[in-house]
Design goal:
Elements lengths: L5 H4 L2 H15 L6 E5 L3 H12 L2 E5 L9 E7 L4 E7 L8 E9 L3 H12 L3 E10 L14 E6 L2
Helix pairs in contact: 2-3
This protein binds 1-O-pyrophosphono-5-O-phosphono-alpha-D-ribofuranose and adenine.
Adenine (ADE) binds next to loops.
Subunit structure: Homodimer.
EC number: 2.4.2.7
Keywords: Cytoplasm, Glycosyltransferase, Purine salvage, Transferase
Length: 153
């Protein structure tokens, strides 16, 4: 079944409660970067970043960002895709949270981890609203922890 977070956004209390759960978890962890994965990581990431006093860094699909980028490829069920991040927006040694709406196979989040680690940013954790555990996506995240709110099985 396709898991859709847009209904959550129609309920301001549920949406706020969702953001607050992430904010409570990450507010005192010295995180200076919230990296959001296009497209739906752009919905959850900015309010979390503002609340914890971190910058928001978009991780975009290819050829969307205007400046110089670094990119990482990841595998899909059929073929591959890429995500990109602007060069110079994060510094070595910064601590980052990666946020997306959903983890399925884990390919997208694993590419996001690689992008940040290539520039020596420490990925504290990945966070999603929904996990599809039967796809075992968290096994592709190596030693990185994954925090999720909902089992989407
Ligand atoms: O764990 P994975 O198997 O990598 O899948 C998860 C990703 O797939 C969906 O995005 P999608 O690729 O459909 O892109 P979109 O949000 O731009 O439509 C979802 O929002 C995650 O970003
Ligand atoms: N929103 C979604 N629901 C179910 N499977 C997915 N795989 C990637 N995105 C998905």
């Amino acid at each position: 079944m396709f898991q859709d977070i847009t209904t959550l956004l129609l309920d301001p209390k549920a949406f706020k409660d969702t953001i607050d759960l992430f904010v409570e978890r990450y507010r005192d962890q010295n995180i200076s970067v919230v990296a959001g994965v296009e497209a739906r990581g752009f919905i959850f990431g900015p309010p979390i970043a503002l609340a914890i006093g971190a910058k928001f860094v978009p991780m975009r699909k290819p050829k969307k960002l205007p400046g110089p980028v670094i990119s990482e490829e990841y595998s899909l069920e059929y073929g591959t895709d890429k995500i990109e991040m602007h060069v110079g927006v994060v510094q070595a040694g910064e601590r980052a949270l990666i946020i997306d709406d959903l983890i399925a196979t884990g390919g997208t989040l694993s590419a996001a981890i690689r992008l940040l680690e290539r520039v020596e940013v420490q990925v504290v954790e990945c966070a999603c609203v929904i996990e599809l555990p039967e796809l075992k996506g968290r096994e592709r995240l190596g030693d990185k922890a994954l925090f999720v709110l909902v089992n989407g099985s």
